[in-house]
Each structure stands twice: as C-alpha cells, then as structure tokens.
Design a protein that fits this description.
The structure holds two protein chains of two kinds. Chain A is an alpha+beta fold. Chain A has helices spanning 3-18, 20-56, 87-96, 129-134, 147-151, 161-167, 212-220, 241-255, 271-314, 316-324, 329-366, 374-400, 404-409; strands at residues 62-67, 100-115, 118-127, 139-142, 156-159, 178-181, 184-192, 208-211, 230-235, 266-270. Chain A has two domains: 2-54 and 277-409, no CATH class; 83-264, no CATH class. Chain A has 13 helices and ten strands. A six-stranded mixed beta barrel of chain A has the order 2-3-8-5-7-6. In chain B, β9 and β10 (221-227) form a beta hairpin. Chain B is built from eight helices and ten strands. In chain B, the strands form two sheets. Chain B has a six-stranded mixed sheet with strand order 6-7-8-3-9-10, with helices on both faces. Chain B has a four-stranded antiparallel sheet with strand order 2-1-4-5, with helices on one face. Classes of the chains: A alpha+beta, B alpha/beta. The interface between A and B is medium-sized, with 23 and 29 residues. The structure holds adenosine-5'-diphosphate and magnesium ion. Residues 14, 16, 21, 23, 41, 43-49 of chain B line the site of adenosine-5'-diphosphate (ADP).
Chain lengths: 411, 239
C-alpha cells in the first residue's frame, strides 16, 4: 500500500481517537447490528445442530404412520378414527413393499410402575421387537426381548434412564429386578441407552418397553385387540423414503377400502418431513435475522454518513488547504472514504467481539448450545466494510466537489 | 524563454444571485521568473481574486492567463491541482495550517500528495522547517506556536516542493511588526538566494518595501506598476 493510503488510515484513526465519544455513538448502530446478528446466528446454528441431533435420535430412515388424520400443522385430528391401524397392516406392509427393510408397531399408555416402595408414572409402550432396531435403541446393560417373548406374551420389560433414576438407587443394577406395572410383575431384562429430548421436546428416556402382546392381554386391557398406536417402517436408503411412503399409502388405502374421493384414515411422516418442518422454522429465523441485520446496518450506515457530513463541514477549510497544496479529487474522496470505512470496520470488529461474547454468555448462562461460524464473522466484516464504503461515498464526493477558494474562505 | 506569468485582458466575474460582481476587469500583467512583486490596493480592489487566479485556484472568466507558457484557462480541476502541487506555494493571511497536526506533518502535506516515500517526505519537510528557522519544532502543534512561527510553518509548507512561484496574500496581516519583519526577511532570502518568484499582497508600505516591483490594483485593473528597487541582474548575482 502506498504511503498515501497508510497515512490516510493513520489520520483517520487519529481523528477517531480524538472524538472517541462521537465515533462510539456513530458506530453504535453497526456494533449492535453486527453483534446481534453474530450472536443470533450462533444461537440459531447451535439450535439447528441440536434439532438435527434430536431428529437423528428417531432412528435411521424412519417412516412413522399414525392412525387418523393429522393436519399439516401437526395437530392430530379426531380421536374417533384412532383405531384404524392394526398389527396385520404392519405385517402386510412389510410383505408387500420390498423397499421397507422392516416394520414395527407400538401402543402406549401412562401407568403406574412400582418397584419396592417406590413408584413412578411412566409411559408403557407395547412394541414389536423390530421397533427397537428401527428406532436405533441400544442398551447400557441387558438386551432386547425376542420374537419368542412376543409370541408367548412374556412379562419382560426394557426401561429407560429416567425410569432407572426414579425407581432404583444409584448404582443399583436394574437388570434382573422385578417391577410391577398395574400390579403385574415384569422382569427387567434391559436398560436402554439415553437418547435425550425428542425434536418435539419430550423426554425420550422416560420410557418402558414391553412386548406388544403382553401389553394388550395383561396390562392395557383394551377391547380393540390388534389395533396399534403407531406403526414404524424403515428403508435402507434415505432416497427411498418418499417412494416407500407413497407405497405404504397405496397399500393402506387398499386394505382399509378407502374410496378414491375419500381422505386417508392415517397419516404418514418420514424422518425427512420432520426435518423439513424444523428447517422451515430455522428459515423463518434466518429471514428475521436478515431483516434485523439490514435495518441495523442501514441505521449504522446513515449514522456514519451523518457524522461524515458534519466532519466535511467542520473541516471545510482543511479541505481547501489540501486542495491548495495539490490534493486532487480522488485524494479527497479517498480520505473521507477511508475515514468512513475505518469507522464502520472498527464498529464491525467491536460488533464481532460483542456477538461472540454474547453467544458465549448465552451458552454459559442459559446453557443453549451455540456455534460460532467463521463464515458469519467474515460476512459481518465484509458487510461493515461495504456499509462504510456505500455511506461514505456521498460525503466524500461532497468534499471533493468543494470549490477550493470558497473552502479556504469558509469560517 | 517565456515569462513566468502572462495575463492578457483577464476578467473575473462573480454572479451572486442577480448581481454581477466584476472583480477583475481586463487586467493585463507580465511577471518574469525570479521577480519579487508587491501588489497593493484598497480593500475589494481584486487583489485576492488576482492571487487566486495566478495560483491556479481559480480560472479567469474571460481573457488569457499563461503560467510558464501553459494556458491555465483550459485546464481541468485535477490538472490545476497538479500545477499547484508542482509549481506553486501559497502563504495565507490566516496561516491555514491543519489543526491538531504537527508542524512536520503540515510542512509535509504537498509531498504527501506527490506520493513520495514517507521517509523522503519527512526528510524534506524537516529541511524546509530548518530553512525557516524552526528546527526542533517539528512535533509542535499549531496551537503551541506563535503567529509568526505558524506563518513560518506555512512558508515551509509552501517551499517544500521547491516551487517556481510563491504567492503570499497579506502574509503579515495577522502579525506584529517583529514577526512581520522576520517573515519578510525569510521571503527576501528565498527570492534572492533561491530565485523563487514571489508575489505578495500587502497594505503596509514597509512590507511592500522588501519587493523590487510594486503593482497597484484598482477596480480590477492595474493602476500603476513600477520598479522600486533596482533588480539584481543575472550578471550581478553571478558576478
Ligand atoms: N466568491 C465571490 N463571490 C462574489 N463576489 C466575490 C467573490 N470573491 C470576491 N468577490 C468580490 O470581488 C471583489 C474583489 O474581491 P477581492 O479580490 O477579495 O478583493 P481584495 O482582496 O482586493 O480585498 C469584491 O467586491 C468582492 O466582494
Ligand atoms: Mg484580499
């Protein structure tokens, strides 16, 4: 860089240092704008990553089928139609659709569980053994029950970490213990590995799995034998999910004898669909961030333009002197552009510091995960530069267009 | 060789609203390289207007002004800036130093726009300050200097580029007698020893007495123009 540019930057910094208060107030818009965007993008990215991790806990390439109609917003429709899916539907789907690597089913109810003198109200899930593999459940001790257990309606249970924490002493081994569900004794044969929160915010570890047949016959006492609360399927490839979902729909409509002009009596959601809903929310967030960023950068830019116009007026004589000793137009333009960009860049840098600190504080205080991406910082840097350039142009040109004689005479 | 300055029937007309002010009315003037000229005249007679035009800060409305043979009236703003930077030094009545900027940096300013390496800028500016007797004051700010010292910084700034023409519009107007004399001695030395052409506007007879030629302006025209001191001829300087 030439001596001219260097000295001009130095001069700009010196002027900033001299009017620290004024410069600070001028930069405030950019500082806050850049800071807010960086903090919020970091929080948003952290949340997105967390949601992705939660969606991953559903399993791999999972399709969920609920009975009844679910509106697009996810609100479940009439309960009256909630008994439309059956075990034989699930078995038939696997037979008829080669794309499905497996199908499973489950039915749940909240019941009291007793162990020793402790009790806990937890969701009891009657499931097919295949459900465990579809949803990628693994074990910290013990293991799953088998097809034989299902067929014989064995009284065996798998329990989640929350149940363990509430029924057992710390360090006590649950496997082998006998718990009572609705006064029916069950032997614990497996402890499930933790999954944490679901994408909908539910505690996935507050769960007990027992064989579906045992649940039906000995615990739930339902009059609708064979009906399930939800069915699950999985494919080997993510790309197969939409096709598999469509085939499931066709098979189920045929099995349920639904006429072509009638709606489905079930709802199909793939893991990809659920991910998309979450992406949709993060897109809204991104748009909001973009709006905040634009407005604050605009305000910051106008602030810079304003202070520069004041500076041009204050320094009219100086500009006249510079012109008299041989400054050309581009020299004057450069001088004020560099001043504007110095202001906006220093503001941007302060904003970056503020934003990163804000994100770290959020993690520290609220415990939210945050991810600070280098791209956002680069972008913020770049935008502050552009703002300085853009809003500096008008005052800089105004200065360069001054008539040297009038500028020299200015009081 | 053409004369340094040639004005032929120069007019400068300002328009303020509907009113036309004729600041220069067909002024003609020739000044040779190496002259020391004092311009006198009552207030409002057009002296500053003439100086601004001679200094290429302004252009004539009508007529011809040639500086070193170059027709100034046709030049664009950046070309004028180039000429000011290369050939002309200004000294103003109100010093016009850049505030909160050291004496050295003020003296450096014209070189800054020449794009000289920083070291050279500094060295030459320091030398110029030395020539006006301000060695050791390089880091002083204008507010830390007396009026006479400030004007000397301004002279250093004017001569740092070794101009062929130095224009001083009432350089002693804001100074006491003592400082005025010091400033005039410096200008006299620059003219005598370095052959810099000096044109100076003044109201004071004793200031004008330093010059070898006195031009009186009235209503934008030359009223009188005469030599007051025998100009040292080229041969007498060399001899
Ligand atoms: N920029 C300008 N606009 C209008 N009138 C001007 C301007 N500059 C000078 N004048 C007028 O031109 C005349 C000569 O002014 P000036 O050259 O400053 O006189 P002096 O320096 O001899 O006192 C005055 O009447 C002054 O009012
Ligand atoms: Mg005047």
């Amino acid at each position: 860089m030439s001596a001219f540019v260097w000295l001009t930057i130095l001069t700009a910094l010196r002027i900033l240092a001299r009017n620290r208060m004024r410069a600070g107030l001028t930069m405030l818009g950019i500082v806050i704008g850049v800071g807010a965007v960086i903090a919020m993008v970091s929080i948003g990215e952290g949340a997105k990553r967390a949601v992705q991790a939660q969606i991953a806990t559903m399993g791999t390439n999972v399709i969920v089928i609920f009975p009844g109609v679910t509106s697009a917003s996810g609100v479940r429709g009439s309960q009256g139609s909630a008994m439309t899916l059956t075990v034989s539907d699930a078995v038939d789907l696997k037979k008829r659709i080669p794309l499905l690597s497996d199908t499973g089913w489950a039915k749940r109810d909240v019941m009291q569980i007793v162990y020793g003198n402790r009790n806990w109200n937890g969701p009891i899930n009657g499931i097919s053994p295949s459900y465990l593999t579809i949803r990628d459940w693994s074990f910290t001790s013990g293991g799953p029950f088998t097809q034989t257990d299902l067929e014989s309606a064995a009284r065996v249970a798998l329990i989640g970490q929350t149940i363990v924490a509430n029924l057992f002493e710390p360090g006590e081994e649950p496997v082998g213990a006998v718990i009572r569900i609705k006064n029916v004794p069950f032997r614990v044969i497996g402890v499930l590995a933790p999954k944490g929160q679901s994408a909908q915010g539910a505690d996935q570890d507050d769960v007990i799995f027992i064989p579906f047949s045992t649940a039906e016959r000995k615990v739930f006492g339902t009059s609708f034998i064979g009906s399930v609360g939800a069915m699950f399927g999985s494919t080997d490839q993510v790309e197969d999910l939409p096709a598999a979902a469509e085939q499931i729909r066709e098979v189920l409509r045929a099995r349920h004898r639904i006429q072509t002009d009638k709606e489905d009596d079930f709802t199909i959601r793939t893991q990809v669909d659920i991910g998309k809903v979450q992406e949709g929310t993060s897109e809204t967030l991104t748009m909001m961030l973009f709006a905040i960023a634009s407005v604050s950068l605009l305000v910051g830019g106008i602030g810079i333009m304003n202070i520069l116009l004041v500076s041009v007026t204050e320094r009219t004589r100086e500009i006249g002197v510079r012109m008299a000793v041989g400054a050309k137009r581009h020299h004057i333009v450069m001088q004020f552009l560099i001043e504007a960009m110095t202001l906006s860049l220093v503001g941007g840098l302060l904003g970056i510091v503020l934003g990163v600190a804000g994100a770290k504080l959020t993690t520290l205080i609220a415990g939210w995960p945050t991810i600070i991406s280098g791209n956002v910082i680069l972008l913020a840097f770049f935008f502050s530069l552009v703002v300085g350039l853009f809003f500096g142009l008008y005052p800089a040109n105004k200065a360069a267009r001054l008539n040297p004689i009038e500028a020299l005479r200015y009081e | 060789m053409s004369p340094l300055i040639e004005c032929e029937d120069v007019w400068k007309i300002y328009r303020v609203g509907d009113v036309e002010v004729q600041a220069l009315r067909g002024l003609s003037l020739t000044i040779e390289q190496g002259e020391f000229v004092a311009i006198m005249g009552s207030s409002g007679s057009g002296k500053s207007t003439l100086m601004n035009m001679l200094g290429c800060l302004d252009q004539p409305t009508k007529g011809r002004y040639r500086l070193n043979g170059i027709e100034v009236g046709n030049l664009k703003p950046d070309q004028l800036a180039e000429i000011r930077n290369q050939q002309i030094g200004f000294v103003f009545q109100s010093f016009n130093l850049i505030p909160r900027t050291s004496a050295l940096e003020n003296a450096q300013l014209p070189l800054f726009y020449r794009g000289l390496p920083l070291k050279e800028q500094r060295a030459q500016a320091a030398a110029a300050l030395g020539r006006v007797g301000l060695r050791g004051r390089e880091d002083h700010y204008p507010t830390q200097l007396s009026g006479g010292q400030q004007q000397r910084v301004a002279i250093a700034r004017a001569l740092v580029t070794s101009p062929s023409l130095l224009l001083a519009d009432e350089p002693t107007g804001n100074l006491d007698t003592q400082s005025s004399q010091e400033i005039m001695k410096i200008l006299e030395t620059l003219n005598r020893d370095e052959g810099i052409t000096i044109i100076l506007v003044t109201h004071e007879v004793d200031v004008a007495a330093y010059a070898a030629r006195e031009i009186v302006i009235k209503d934008g025209q030359v009223l009188s123009d005469h030599v007051t001191q025998p100009r040292p001829t080229a041969s007498s300087v060399e001899g």
